[in-house]
Amino acid sequence: MLELIPTLDSWRPEVLEVAVATVVRTSGSTPRPPGARLAIAPDGRMTGSVSGGCLEAEVVEQGLLTLSGAEPPRVLHFGIADEMGWSVGLACGGEVDIFIERLRWDDSDPVIEGLRSVAADGRDAALCTALAGPDAGHRWLIEGGRVLGGSDGAPPGLLEVIPKHLRSGQAGVEVAGGVEVLVEPLGSRARMVIVGAVDTGSVLCQLARAVGYQVLVVDPRERFCTRERFPDADQLILEWPQTALPRIRLGARDAAVCLTHDPKFDDPTLLHLLSTDVGYIGAIGSRKTQASRRERLVAAGAERDSLARIHGPVGLDLGAVTPAETALSILAEAVATRYGREGGRLGGG
User: Over the stretch 66-113, which tens digit does the pLDDT of each residue have?
Assistant: First the structure.
């Protein structure tokens, strides 16, 4: 939703109401994921996309009907088994459900004001939209367990399902209080903080950036933490981790990895990370190193139960030997953790 804000703002004041089409479910091969949106003005102007082109004409027609009041908010289904799916060009083998609603882009709406604030600050929040029944199209903006805006409270149980969507960064449909609700996580790109500008970190930086992470490298050693060694880093921070990390707001979708093998780096890094909501904490080192490190952390004030959040030895068991293979195993574990998976073989056996 955040990507539509600049265009919707630019259409005012002549356009105050738009039709909004949102992908809510997909199956098989489809061009756009859940959460993808298309906004349609009364004069036919469009911004965004729900299909990469193959469904847009039909969706625009349906959106204009909703905008005129001729049709209520509703979910449309397109699939290869449907005549409409073939006629509009969805012959790729997939199926998609698209929710059509009317939206008044009004500054007095606390949800819209909240969306602007989240967009400006890059904070993690979730936009939740009822998809059916008398409340179809009703929205709630949820941040930190608080409901920001919306004339009614969130359906029972909705707050409990928000964290998994914030952690994965993926939109999806949940049933809360008997109501189908699209939950769309909002915020900045997921971040990976690498503490320790070592060779493994250089490859991890490259791989993490390729899968969409914003990568920050923290190390006070100027000879190691250089743009030549980390050309793919979004940010190089030449500071000790205990100085740099408190300024970096880490949430459930984010990851942090300590690669130094040095208690001067490891201990303050892990103590700080355990005090945050960061979704993945990795620490390099053997089982013997991990055991002694955990005792130091407890002595420094860490709760023993919280140490289970630390993935160490870090990474999935790929048999990694080289720095590049180790980086691959770390990234694989971070991604698996983000999506709540164990990282086993898809084929079994």
Answer: 999 898 899 998 875 444 444 444 545 578 899 999 988 877 788 888
Structure tokens at 303: 């709760």
Superfamily of the domain at 191-338: NAD(P)-binding Rossmann-like Domain (3.40.50.720)
Give dist(CA 208, CA 282) in Å, integer.
Answer: 14
Say what angle helices 287-299 and 263-274 make with each other, to 10 degrees.
60
pLDDT band at 1 (very low <50, low <70, confident <90, very high): confident
Q: How many CA atoms lie within 13 A of 310 on its CB side?
A: 29
In this structure, are strands 235-237 and 214-218 parallel, antiparallel, or unpaired? parallel
CB 159 within 8 A of CB 123: no
Task: Evaluate whether 282 touches 312 at the Cβ level (below 8 Å).
Answer: yes
Q: How much is the mean pLDDT over the chain?
A: 87
Closest CA relative to residue 142, chosen from 132, 157, 69, 133: 157
The domains of the chain are located at 1-105, 106-188, 191-338
For 269-301, letters b (16+ CB in 10 Å) and e give bbbbbbebbbbbbbbbbeeebbeebbeebeeee
Q: What is the pLDDT of residues 228-267, one digit of tens each?
A: 999 999 999 999 999 999 999 888 889 999 999 899 999 9
The two tokens of residue 224 are: 């190691």
List the one residue out of 42, 82, 87, 97 whose CA is nearest residue 66.
Answer: 42
